[in-house]
Amino acid sequence: MRSGAKVAIVGGVFVVVAGGVGYGGYNLWNGVMGAEKSPRSNSAEAPRTGPVTDEEVTTAARDFLTAWAAGEPEKAGQLTNDPVAAGPAVAAYHDGARITKAVITPGTPAGTTVPFTVNATITYEDVSKPWSYTSRLTVVRGQATGRALVKWAPSVLHPKLLTTGATLRTGVAKTAPVKAVDRNGAELTAAKYPSLRPVLDTLRQRYGAKAGGESGIETWIDSGSASVPDSTLLVLSKGKPGRLKTTIDADVQAAAEKAVKAYGNASVAAIEPSTGAIRAVANSPATEFNVAFQGAQAPGSTMKIVTAAMMLQNGLATPDTKVECPSEVLSRGRTFQNLDRFSITDGTLTQAFRRSCNTAFIKAISTLSDKGIADTALGDTARDSFGIGQVWQVGVTAADGSVPESAGSETPASYIGQGRITMSALNVASLSATVKNGGFLQPYLVARDLDDREFATAEPLSAEVARGLRTMMNAAATAPDGTAVRAMSGLASPKGAKTGSAEVDNQEDSNSWFTGYSGDLAAAAVVQSGGHGGDSAGPVVAKVLRAG
What we know:
Layout: E1 14-16, E2 26-27, E3 31-32, H1 54-69, H2 73-78, H3 83-97, E4 99-106, E5 113-124, E6 127-141, E7 148-150, E8 167-172, E9 178-181, H4 197-207, E10 217-222, E11 231-237, E12 242-245, H5 250-260, E13 266-271, E14 278-284, H6 291-294, H7 304-313, E15 322-325, E16 328-331, E17 334-337, E18 344-348, H8 349-354, H9 358-362, H10 364-370, H11 377-386, H12 410-415, H13 425-437, H14 463-478, H15 485-488, E19 495-502, E20 511-518, E21 521-527, H16 537-546
Parallel strand pairs: 1-4, 9-12
Antiparallel strand pairs: 2-3, 4-5, 5-6, 6-7, 8-10, 10-11, 13-14, 13-21, 15-18, 16-17, 19-20, 20-21
């Protein structure tokens, strides 16, 4: 049979159609059609070393696709570099997806990678529907045998099978579909707001039964984990969706989606300070992992909001107190510097804050050490005044911020948002929201009475501390030398902001952080490798705040 000819299905499920690999045509259920009687294996070849050859790539890919399509999971597994994981995964694919027909079309190899397309028909009871997707496999040399083998990953079978234990399922959906709407009743869909896909999947999994809908027949990714939501791939017959109201504001969400697209890797979250309601969440790229809620990264100098609060609460300074801001400082055996080694002579805490002077905040350690609380005070303030370090019941999966007790040089690093401190964009947005509101209100995406979940609480900021923090954040956003003034220009008052840049090991440029509020909306953004906070993350936050 000539390369490029298509093969009819003969009494089987899968057929491979000749493509750029040069397979010829293979009926993958009943064996090879043409000169060969059964698929060749490379298992008899002598062990080899070095990079895999083009011929080995073609043979290894063909043999794996043949075994997979023929419903021979054990054989398919042995043709990968991880047969223990691959064999059961291939078996689960056949048993769970309910595929009655499929055609595999290999594409042209790119080095050791072979793309392919699966055009399938899925049937459940008397309902059938076509289904198509593309995936790829990579061929590597086995370390022990020297054989050319498929590098195993669940995503070989389907690109959205991203974790071990995840598999395809077809049947009556485990939960009813939901029609999620924003605060004003506008429907929220993943097609219109791509960043909401993992959010909507989780909302369906958690609240589908409470929203009053009826399940339909679907094909979905079963994550195999209670903490990871299932993801619908194909709807064979629609169920009846229940209505679920969220706190999202469609206009703010649209602005957030657009803002992060300007960067290759960015996240933003927005909160209403007076209520804690989450108004937007967006990520670029928009994937199944919601970085804006689940990311755990060093927040850089946005942490100085908490450090400043700690200083005010412990009587170290007021916004007008004169503080030292040398170009560098030695603390706990490590030297810390300001950006470009700037210094401020005879300046106040407000000036140090608005210019983001590292050394002024690190110098607070000496006084707190005399009180015996230098290693614990920051975490106490974060937890007791900002809710950071508590468990947040947002309504969907979200990482809790962490400000652990520190020691040695970790303590001065933590005062400027480095060390072992981790936060998400949602956590940092809440810092600004807490300052604007005068007290912490746990962010939430759906009403707490929907499932009677317990919200985290914190003591309100004292009037003096709240006023002082607002003064300093306003100076950063409005003073000519404020680090946030360019991004916050033109935004409505009352407003305030804080910039940050977080150094990351083995990363040439710092992560860009920015958080601020305008009116009754607060937001925070992080741009990976974005440099200074006002340069990259600042414009993202500004665009979101303008939509509020």
